[in-house]
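Order emerges. For instance:

***
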Amino acid sequence: MKTLGEVIRRLRKEHNLSQEALAAQYGMSRATISGIENNTIPEVGIRKVEAILNGFGYELTAVARPTKRPTLDLLKKDSFHG
């Protein structure tokens, strides 16, 4: 979420929007936008975040992460054969 808030802040600033203007555009409070950007609200609706990102021409996607980290031996083996 931290990175997501940073992305939304960057996009908002690139579009010269205040937190108040962005909040009004999506029917949210300025405090909600601030909380999203600063990762200070305990929960934010995924639809709210998705709406903001879509408005800036982005989409929210999920990316699988490795279930376990590779060992040093595996990394050495992969780089040797890669």
Notes: The chain has one domain: 1-82. The chain is about 60% helix and 0% strand.
